[in-house]
Amino acid sequence: MTTITPKVEAAIASLRSSGTQAPNTSGPTIVLSTVYTRYTPKSVEALQWALEKGFIVDVDIETNLRAGEGAWEDLEEFLVKAIPTSHRGKIILSNILPAPDDREYLSQRVRTRTRRREIAELAS
What we know:
Layout: H1 6-17, E1 31-36, H2 41-52, E2 56-61, H3 69-82, E3 90-94, H4 103-123
Helix pairs in contact: 2-3
C-alpha cells in the first residue's frame, strides 16, 4: 500500500544517476518526502536506497488504517522490507495516529495486539 510520488521517484532516479553519496552534513539538510497509499515493491526499493544513502524520508500516511488489520499489516510489511539492516537515514512517519476522538479505537488495537502476543507465547 505504498506509492512513492512521481516527483520523489524522479528525484531518487536523478540522485542515483549522478552517483550521489550520503547527504553533506555541512550544508542544508535534504529531506525527501513521499505519500504512503499502498504497498509496492518499487517503493520499498526507493525507500531502501534513500535510507542507505543517509537521507531523511518523511512518509505521509494517507491510507485508512481503520479499514482493518490488512491496512496496518501492509504498512508494517512495507516498513519491515524497506528498512535495511544497516542504514544511516531516518524515517519520519506523518499522520499515523488517529484523531484524538479515536482513543477507544486506539485502545482496542492495543488490546488486540496484546492478546495476539499472549496467544503466540502460549502456542510456542
